[in-house]
Amino acid sequence: MSQEPVAIVGAAAVSPYGFGWRGLARSVRERRLSPGPSRELRLVREGALSFEVPDLSSEVDSGDPKNRKLMSRAARLATVAARAALEEAGWRDARDEIGCFLGIGAGGGPLDELRAMLLASLETGRFSQERFAQSGLATTNPLFAFHLLTNFTLCHGAIAHGLGGPNGAWFSRGSGTLVALTEAIEALGVGDCDRALAGGADCALYAGTFLELDRGQYLSRGLVPGEGAALLTLARDAAKPLARVTGWALDSDKARPISNRISDLLGFFDSRIPDALVIAPWGTPTREALFEALARRCAKVLDATASLGESLAASPALAWVVGLDWLLSDGLESVGVLSAGIDGDLGAVLLTRGEPR
Amino acid sequence: MTARRVYLRGVGAYTPLGTRWPRTLAALAEGKSAVRPISHFDASGFPCQSAAAIPTAIEVEDRRLPFAQSAAREAWAAAGLEVAPERLGVFIGAESGRPSLATVIALSRAAGGGTSFDHRSFGLRASAHVKSAEVISPSAVASILAGEVGAGGPVMTVSLACASSAAAIAEAARSIRLGECDAALCGGVGADVDPFMLAGFALLGALSASGRSHPFDCRRDGFVLGEGAAMAVLAAEPPASGAAIEVAGIGRTLDAHHLTAPDPSGDGAFRAMQLALRDAGLESVDYVQAHGTSTPLNDAIEAAAIRRVLGPGLARARVSSVKGALGHSIAGAGALGFLCAVAALSEGTVLPTAGLEQPDRACDLPHVLGEAISASIDTAMCNAFAFGGANVSIVARRA
Quick check: B259 and A143 CB within 8 A? Predict the structure, then answer.
């Protein structure tokens, strides 16, 4: 599907490469990072590999330490990215009119919170429901319930930065993040807002998420868990846009062979002939399928997740930002982005160079 | 592009007052309440021990599914639609499901079960108790319902806490308007009367210490958890016979104020209602199904926002909140409210606010007390305002 192109006036990313999005395409192309032993997961599984966001400096981190303690990891990354995106776009005024549309992941407390909760719920070595109610959850973040209500990945950033416009948070294991982008574009198109942030934020390094991915045999098929947040700042119109979102497509028909589905999505691109492609496959099977389908179709292909990890709801958005950086840094006319998350859906987004009005 | 109109074709609900919507509606019209002491697990240690619960066994993994499936089947059967799979969408408001308490206990044992937490043991043994993504994934409900109705169009899960299912209905309407699909199953489910959420919301100080739900009443002291599912089928084609109801307006805003407290100015709520009215081309409505949670802050702020947005139209309007009878079903709440608004439009049944006997002057509104009243309602609005500040208002009207 496509409609009137929407202007991209800025972006933001928090990724395993750190804070910022300029230069991300080059870092990914040169594979400056490889998965390393996970700090978050080392206590759950020795030797587990992951891509983790490095410690953020106090200048870029989200709010004061007290507020940070109330945030899930994904919410913290989203809040950092939102501030950067707003600053780069120079959107200081009338923020209550700015829309915010995010792909988000399932919540999950970090292991130390789970540990504290369970320890406080034990009575003579056994789990006690009464102790759980009276003291178990009291040991944890008072917003523990909101780790389970996943919209707080969106709301922390909105509150911190005063975003009051139309909004939505879509649970995403891939395609929900594309839905967030399309919703933002449509909100701009119909006049619900003139400016919007769109992207995704997630962390695949929670112990529960890691075990879920393990049980689903994603890890054994090449998925390396990661984390991150990425946003595009979109405007209905802009005098000097960085680029434009010219079109998008989503294939949810999991019953069809993936090779056919990829061919159809490439058909979407063929009518627009992108100069290059960024792909974001979750693991080995989709990576091989994408490369096989692309072998004779496009010379320039950049694999974003190979160097950023699979950050679930954040992966497509990180790939868009890599594509945007590539478009600008190499002076390309257009870049296509193909995402293939663990939900089995395939997404395509076309970014084109932004011509001044 | 001229947006297509969006018509209601069927509804269904599974609530503590009935396994089908007509039974729930009849009980609500009589002013009955489902709020009572929790009986399906031992809540004696919890600060709030009452809820509007569906007393299914707490050992069931993911209690959301049976509620949602029942409501969806009822709505889908009522709609009687034939639609090409690729033109049918599913839009569900849902938050994460929870593993059963038995699973939590098993996880505790996987961590050693003693006075120390054995991380290595947890890592090795816990995965056996993490049943699969389906137990906790917010999207599990939408995926399963899409399979049941054979939807091959857009399938999405909106997670906006207490506004989730209202936002899902809004998304479905938007998708039909834009021609992305011709029909949609939409709504939401909440199944939060469990030890996790009871303790979690109690920690926030959001639950009623008295264990009673009194929206807009002087005695209100917090909300009471509820649970259930409400679903609707929307379509681009109106029903072949009978009165048609259309989803005419949508408004969505963020408070951008506080994680748990509404903006004292009520500006976010006001803007959501105002946007929905503008979208529908209206200045006022005949009926408002309020968010009305029974918390001291929300009800007073929402009441002021309703007065402000309806202006002179308030004199001709009625306002009520279903949460007095069914508690707050979180992700399912907005869709339940939408069905109540639809009942006012389709049957002229304006439901009362159960538990409202001593209206607070700060919540001065044209309330409906005691039992339902019959009235000719041509336009209605339902509100859903979430923790975190997401606000959704939907306007429906007789076509």
Answer: yes
Angstrom distances, CA of residue A110 to CA of A114, A208, B104:
7, 9, 16
Secondary structure letter of residue A342 according to DSSP: T
Task: State how far the Cα of B44 lies from the Cα of B34, in Å rounded to an integer.
Answer: 19
Contact status, residue A101 vs residue A167, Cβ threshold 8 Å: yes
Torsion sign across C-alpha atoms A280, A285, A291, A294: negative
Give pLDDT tens digits for B48-83: 999 999 977 656 667 899 999 999 999 999 999 999
> Which residues of chain A have a CB within 8 Å of the CB of B390?
151, 154-155, 167, 169
| CA torsion angle A344 B90 A102 A53 (round to 10) | -30
Asked if A196 reaches chain B (Cβ–Cβ under 8 Å), the answer is: no
Contact A215 B158 (CB under 8 A): no
User: Rounded to whole angstroms, how far apart are CA atoms A196 and A356?
Assistant: 20
Give dist(CA A153, CA A147) in Å, integer.
9
Exposure class string for B29-54: b at 16+ Cβ within 10 A, else e? bebbbbbeebebbebebbbbbbbbbb
Number of CB atoms found within 10 A of residue B221's CB: 17
- ipTM here: 0.82
Radius of gyration of chain B (CA): 20
Choose from B105, B107, B136, B159 for mutation: most chain A CBs within 10 A: B159
Q: Say how far apart CA B203 and CA B200 lie, in whole Å.
A: 5
Predicted TM-score (pTM) of the model is 0.89
pLDDT digits (tens, 9 = 90+) for B325-347: 999 999 999 999 999 999 999 99
Amino acid at A231: L
Q: CA torsion sign, B293 to B299 to B303 to B309?
A: negative
